[in-house]
Amino acid sequence: MDEHQVALIAETDRRGDPTLLQIAPEQAPFMTMLTRAIGARDAIELGTFTGLSALAVAQGLPEDGTIICCDMSEEWTDIGKGFWEAAGVAHKIDLRIGPALDTLRALANEEAFDLAFIDADKENYPNYYERCLTLLRPGGLILVDNVLWGGRVADPAEQDESTRTIRALTRQMHADERIEFSLLPVGDGLSLAVKR
């Protein structure tokens, strides 16, 4: 993990309880490595919060790469901007404030993206997944965060909408012949899907 990721984690932690929305610290260098490993140039992220995942992906992109970041909160995303600048990657980050589905629907129906990271409202995970799959090039990678959901997905007594949605999407992805699928116990669970 580099100094900019460490500093942003510390600043987010200083802010208190909402830090639960941040990716796990070990995910940041892993996401940078994955971005580089697949040679990603164009990425999209749904759910930016204070910008650690955006920073991690941007650090893995080439100088002319771009990550479109979708979030609803200027208050939280503003925290990350100074860290993006300090890391020298702010020019790669295209932040769009508003409903992520609106942003996704406004993008042309082209297989233009190399990487997609889904970490927003859980109830929309299936919609995000389908739209990202449409926008991803063959060989591109979708990452879906929080798929272990603090262990709640394994507890049949947990039947809230978010838990049920995550369970259903994981089953769908496992059976989806359009992708190669893996689920890693990194952070709160990270699903990886490579588009065939």
Folded structure, characterized:
The structure is a single chain. The protein is of the alpha/beta class. 40% of the residues lie in helices and 22% in strands. The chain is built from seven helices and seven strands, in the order H-H-E-H-E-H-E-H-E-H-E-H-E-E. The chain has helices spanning 3-14, 27-37, 52-60, 74-86, 100-106, 125-135, 161-175, and strands spanning 42-46, 66-71, 93-97, 113-118, 136-145, 179-184, 190-195. The protein has a seven-stranded mixed β-sheet with strand order 3-2-1-4-5-7-6, sandwiched between helices. Helix 1 (3-14) packs antiparallel against helix 4 (74-86), helix 2 packs parallel to helix 3 and helix 5 (100-106) runs parallel beside helix 6. The radius of gyration is 16 Å and the shape is globular. The model has no long low-confidence stretch (mean pLDDT 95).
Helical residue percent?
25-40%
Strand runs, count: 7
Rg over alpha carbons = 16 Å
Q: Could you say which overall geometry the principal axes of the C-alpha atoms support?
A: globular
Largest β-sheet summary? 7 strands, mixed
**SSE string, helices as H and strands as E:** HHEHEHEHEHEHEE
Mean pLDDT: 95
**Residue windows where pLDDT falls under 50 for at least 5 positions:** none
> Count of helices?
7
Reading side by side through the largest sheet, how are the strands ordered? 3-2-1-4-5-7-6
Q: How big a fraction of the residues is strand?
A: 15-25%
| Oligomerization state | single chain
| Coarse structural class | alpha/beta
Distance N to C terminus: 31 Å
